[in-house]
Amino acid sequence: MPEAPFAELGFKRHLKVDLFPTIWCPGCGIGTIMIELAMVLDEMGLDETNTILVTGIGCTGRMGSYMKFESVYTLHGRTLPVAEAIKAVRPEMHVVVVAGDGDTASIGGNHLIHAIRRNASLTVLCNNNEIYGLTGGQTGPTTPTGTKTLSSPAGNPNTPINLQGLVRSSAHALYAKTTVYHQLHMRNAIREAIEHDGFSFVDITSQCIENNGRRIGFASANDMLNFYRKTYRRAAKDAEHLDPFEIGILAPRPADTGSTNGNGAGATSSPERPANLPSQPPGPMASATESPGASGSTGVARPTSDDVKARRRAESQERAAVMAQLSAEVKLAVAKKELTLTDALTQAGIPIPEWLRTGASAPSGAPVAAGDVQISATGQDPRTEQQPTELDAQKAEAAVEERNLIGGTPGADIQPAAPRTAHDAAPPAVGADPRAAKRAEAQRKLALMQRLPSEVKLRVAKGEITLAGALQEAGIDPESIA
Ligand SMILES: Cc1ncc(C[n+]2csc(CCOP(=O)(O)OP(=O)(O)O)c2C)c(N)n1
Ligand code: SF4
Ligand SMILES: [Mg+2]
Q1: Res. 375: pLDDT tops 50
Q2: Span 59-79, average pLDDT
Q3: Residue 256: pLDDT band with limits 50, 70, 90
């Protein structure tokens, strides 16, 4: 049966063909991945109403501009947190991340680890051209050992990252390895990945002919595809692991297989909280610093914030009860702070309650009677008429340092209004600022260069002769420029 012409194919509706030809080099593998993705989305009946693309920076990242989907062309290495955020607010959408090997596993490697750990419901298509394509072909995280690159002309001395091991460290993740040559396999892998409810990763070996292939001896993109055809083999259908140069789709492991977790340990595939730990408190804790208390594991019962609130409520009720025994005008005088509560009570012949006398757990700022009393448990001195507040402490500190206090309420900004010392106020010395020193040195060199004839300047710029040598040749004394 003759194949339908390109113009009649359904997947074409997902592509901005009016923008073709793309910016990708002729023969680049990225275009093939885009077409296969468009085909899968078409087969699955997915479109811009239910699918969002997130792309990274790099040649691969440009895919979002050529597809008719809402897409985020995000920062280099940040595809996964952006994709997770989208999924969090629009859980009904399919979120497909398309990014290069550098974006995914180098600068974005930390996000990759945690997206896998959290089993974020995303599909990642990693265009693994084993190089930083866009920036000229530097060594990337998946560059094979020994490969000559722009940044490792003698061959990459490092071991590439094990993407399979990383993804398979989670029992819940789907990992597929495929190549741009094996198009039908790639399509199946992308489809299974999108259908997977959880984290899925399709590792697609593809050719960057311009910034990788030619440097390592391939004459054309076709040669690279032929290399993939000859080198890669399909893994057995029930394979649990892919060997080098094997393509296959590794489904998540069943939770009860007890298989290794990819870290070499014989851990269960979904480790549970060990049963021998004490049981957790029934409700959520109010803060991470709080102990679970008597019902929890430590047995050290520290007050929860609810306890603190209850104590404060009790204290203010106590205070109100004491105040209620005073006449209206005395109450007013106390409220206006013309009279302390202790004095008011003493004058009215009412016994001073313990908390007011010692200040041990009195409401903050409550006046304490002068006299023969103990230092309170809070460290405040009840012998003083008014307990020092945080603001008082800040004021005292500011006075010692001879600075003004900005703000006025406890906890407010206490930045000094003026430099604390004469040293702070002095402008930075040129010698102390490396950037200023560098600028000065550059200006000095420029001034010296300007004194040279044009052809000598050119030789200096080309690195054929040093500036010092050129000056010597021209009989110019560098010290003559200040
Ligand atoms: C934060 C940041 N660091 C570095 C860069 C420079 N940069 C742009 S693309 C790229 C690497 C691209 O490699 P890869 O992710 O593998 O994509 P490819 O171009 O191979 O498709 C780098 C380092 C950048 N844009 N932003
Ligand atoms: S530099 Fe490489 S990855 Fe980038 S478009 Fe060209 S061939 Fe593709
Ligand atoms: Mg790359």
Answers
A1: no
A2: 97
A3: very low
pLDDT digits (tens, 9 = 90+) for 155-197: 999 999 999 999 999 999 999 999 999 999 999 999 999 999 9
Residue pair 213/204 in contact (Cβ under 8 Å)? The answer is: no
244 C-alpha vs ligand 2 centroid, how far in Å?
24
What's the pLDDT at 427?
A: 47
Helix (H, G, I), strand (E, B) or coil at 94: strand
Cα-to-centroid distance, 238 and ligand 3 (Å): 30
Q: Is 132 in the pocket of ligand 1 (CB under 6 A)?
A: yes
Q: Pick the more confident residue, 312 or 298.
A: 312
126 and 163 Cβ atoms separated by less than 8 Å: yes
Task: Give the mean pLDDT of 311-329.
Answer: 81
What is the pLDDT, as a whole number, of residue 467?
A: 87
- Is there an atom of ligand 1 within 6 Å of 133 CB? yes
426: Cα separation from own chain's centroid? 38
Q: Is the pLDDT of residue 40 over 90?
A: yes
Residues 6+ apart with CB under 8 A from 318: 353, 355
User: For residue 58, how far is its CA from the centre of ligand 1 (angstroms)?
Assistant: 5
Q: Determine the residue of 57, 73, 125, 210 to mutate for testing ligand 1's pocket, defined as the one with the most ligand atoms within 8 A of the Cβ atom.
A: 57
Closest residue by CA, ligand 2 atom 7? 208
**pTM check: above 0.85:** no
Give the tokens for residue 353.
Answer: 């309650």
| Alpha carbon separation from 48 to 14, 40, 44, 71, 124 (Å, rounded) | 8, 14, 12, 9, 18
Q: String of b and e for 26-55 (b: at least 16 CB within 10 Å)? A: ebbbbbbbbbbbbbbbbeeebeeeebbbbb
> Domains in the chain and their CATH numbers?
6-250 (3.40.50.970), 312-384 (no CATH), 389-422 (no CATH), 433-480 (no CATH)
Residue predicted with more confidence, 434 or 135: 135
State which ligand 1 atom lies nearest to the alpha carbon of 57.
9
| pLDDT band, residue 412 (cuts 50/70/90) | very low
Ligand 1, atom nearest to 106 Cα: 15
- State in Å: Cα 137 to ligand 2 middle: 9
Ligand 2, CB within 6 Å, residue ranges: 24-25, 28, 30, 59, 129, 133-134, 208-211
Closest Cα to atom 8, ligand 2: which residue? 28
